[in-house]
Amino acid sequence: MTEKIIALEGVSLLDFLGVQNRNIKEVSKFFPTCKIISRGNEIHIKGPSKEVTRLETFLNDLQAHYQKFSTLTPAVVKNYLENEKEIKDSLSLPDDVIVHGNRGLIVKAKTTNQKKLVQASYKHDIVFAVGPAGTGKTYTAVALAVKALKEKQIKKIIITRPAVEAGENLGFLPGDLKEKIDPYLMPIYDALNDMVHSEKMKEYLERNVIEIAPLAYMRGRTLNDAFIILDEAQNTTTMQLKMFLTRMGPKSKIVITGDVTQIDLPPRQKSGLADAIQKLNKIKGIKFIELDGRDVVRHPLVVDILKAYDEADK
User: Fold this and answer.
1) pLDDT tens-digit profile of 186-210?
2) pLDDT-based confidence at 88, cuts 50/70/90?
3) Cα–Cα distance measured from residue 161 to residue 141, given in angstroms and rounded to the nearest whole number
4) What whole-number distance in Å separates Cα of residue 29 and Cα of residue 21?
5) Is 283 in a helix, a strand, or coil?
6) pTM, 2 dp
7) What sign does the dihedral 156-34-22-20 (CA atoms) show?
8) How many angstroms separate the CA atoms of 306 and 293, rounded?
9) What is the dihedral of CA 19, 21, 26, 29, to 10 degrees?
């Protein structure tokens, strides 16, 4: 058994504990193996070591929320408890299951190379997933990002994609930044909607926990504590991809997806993805995963279409 004391600093005890300790009672129900006692502006917790550690992290998260928003309602506590339940559930998932999605959906790696992509992401901070359409590159990357967020390995998800059709100059398009880039990110939204509840998704977007940003807007930033996905990387220039890779900060992971057979750049302009495959494949900590027709998880005809194009190119 382990005992810890958490000091409550700069909080209203009535707001934090709830009327008649309602907030803490809800937390106690979720951590039944732990004993929680409030004494003045201290909370004493006792229980199994692992549960006490999780409970301590949970209470510190609630305290951080209060200090940021100056309130802690029962609804907020319930929301945090639901997120904690997702973390607990994910810890008991089979190895090939990445995350539990909406409506009972189980998101898992379905092919050998998808499983390699998952394992590579666990072991390496930068992973390139290269392969044709329909091989689950983007979907798997989004699942890995959602899993990392639910398990609090990172603090936010950043998703970016080059908008080649608009020449990366999105200023002339109507609407705000999100509205300008949204048409290029529908595959990402489709994947997120499978894995994150609509209300939670709305909250994440409003709080920038999930951030959508065109590649041109990444310059000058340092991205810490984040899971960053660069989709359609074959349409980056060499300088754009170099710029993107050097944005990486501490405690971050990057997954870059692309298909070198579908480059939409102007003629004579080299793809940043093709360039990176040549220059970065020997760096320790960076892993390249190649997917092929055997990994296609769309309609069976897609496999035949890819084979026909490959044969014609040869």
Assistant:
1) 888 888 989 998 888 899 999 999 9
2) low
3) 13
4) 13
5) coil
6) 0.66
7) negative
8) 7
9) -150
